[in-house]
Amino acid sequence: MAEKQKRLLQGNGACVQGALYAGMRFFAGYPITPSTEVAEGSARELPRIGGRFIQMEDELASMAAVIGASVAGMKSMTATSGPGYSLMQENIGYAYITETPCVVVNVQRGGPSTGLPTKVSQSDTMQARYGPHGDYTAIAVAPSTVADTFSETVRAFNLSERFRTPVTVLLDEVIAHSREIITIPEKGEIELIERVKATVPPEKFVPFEMTPNKVSPMAAYGEGYRFHVTGLTHDPMGFSTNEAKEIGPKLNKLRDKIMNYTAEIEKLRIEMMDEAEIAFVSYGSVSRASLQAASLARSAGIKVGCVQFCTVWPFPDDTLKEVLSGCRKVIVGELNMGQIVHEIRRILPDDVEVHSVLRYDGEIITPMQLLEKLEEVL
Amino acid sequence: MATAEKQKSDVVLKYLRPKKKFPSVWCPGCGNGIVMGAFLRAIDKLGYDKDNVAVVSGIGCSSRLPIYLDFHTLHTTHGRALPFATGVKFARPGMKVIVITGDGDALAIGGNHFIHACRRNIDITAILINNYIYGMTGGQGSPTTPSAAISTTTPYGNAEKHFDPCDLAIGAGASFVARATVYHTPQMERLIGEALEHRGFSLVEVISNCHTYFGRLNRQGDPVAMIKAFKDNAVAKARAEKMTAEELKGKFVIGGLYRSDKTEFCDEYQKVVDAHLVK
Ligand SMILES: Cc1ncc(C[n+]2csc(CCOP(=O)(O)OP(=O)(O)O)c2C)c(N)n1
Ligand code: SF4
Question: Which residues of A touch B73 (CB under 8 A)?
Answer without folding.
Answer: 226-229
